[in-house]
């Protein structure tokens, strides 16, 4: 009778392991410091593969609860807000007046990212103390790299008009120097109808006019981002 029970239990345990193991492998790694309540969660690049991200910011947006958590850190902005202290690149803080965290991460190609750390609390290795939550984007360790990304979109308007738009970006790194060139074109097509009515003193309709107006223009923008990594921080222009 005992032999029969063992024979049933072993296949069940093996089946459970086969089911659980792939699921556990695909999850982010949570590294907890047993000495306190602080923890670091690591999201490898493979975690984001199914979402086909274009930039590091696309990857970050797929982390559950990250938007609300980062907004609570200050700055009052959307997404990461304007607090550069909340975002690290390879463990180094960003500097530069006009370089908000979300903007910077949008300029880093997803294929350059090795993994993303979400650090809650303190981290002695990175010199972080008392922060509610910090994002550390770790790039692949290569002396030089470059990438090109392109996006094409179409907007359909109420009158059936289709207008194209797009984005072309060149980014790369050589040693401690990094660069990004971004070119955008977006349609600003708009159509509206204005109507006029004329009445006599007895409020009888005398005349009505309807006029359709359209504005068809394209906005072009170009930006260049240059950076140099010093020992303790990264300076961006």
UniProtKB/TrEMBL annotation:
Keywords: Signal. InterPro entries: Plug_dom, Plug_dom_sf. Residues 1-26 form the signal peptide. Gene3D superfamilies: TonB-dependent receptor, plug domain (2.170.130.10). Residues 38-131 form the TonB-dependent receptor plug domain. It holds the Pfam family Plug. It comes from the Bacteria. This is TonB-dependent receptor plug domain-containing protein.
């Amino acid at each position: 009778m005992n032999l029969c029970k063992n024979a049933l239990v072993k296949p069940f345990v093996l089946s459970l392991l086969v089911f659980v193991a792939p699921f556990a492998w695909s999850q982010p790694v949570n590294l907890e410091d047993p000495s306190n309540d602080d923890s670091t969660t690591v999201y490898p690049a493979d975690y984001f593969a199914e979402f086909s991200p274009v930039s590091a910011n696309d990857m970050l947006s797929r982390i559950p609860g990250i938007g609300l958590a980062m907004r609570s850190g200050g700055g009052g902005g959307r997404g990461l807000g304007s607090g550069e202290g909340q975002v690290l690149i390879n463990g180094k803080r960003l500097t530069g007046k006009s370089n908000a965290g979300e903007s910077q991460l949008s300029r880093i190609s997803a294929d350059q990212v090795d993994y993303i750390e979400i650090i809650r609390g303190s981290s002695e290795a990175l010199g972080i103390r008392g922060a509610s939550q910090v994002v550390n984007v770790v790039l692949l360790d290569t002396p030089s790299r470059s990438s090109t990304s392109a996006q094409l979109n179409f907007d359909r308007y109420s009158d059936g008009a289709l207008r194209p738009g797009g984005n072309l970006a060149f980014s790369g790194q050589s040693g401690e120097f990094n660069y990004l060139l971004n070119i955008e074109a977006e349609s600003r097509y708009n159509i509206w109808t204005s109507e006029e009515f004329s009445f006599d003193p007895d409020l009888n309709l005398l005349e009505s006019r309807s006029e359709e107006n359209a504005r068809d223009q394209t906005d072009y923008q170009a930006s260049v981002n240059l950076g140099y990594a010093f020992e303790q921080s990264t300076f961006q222009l």
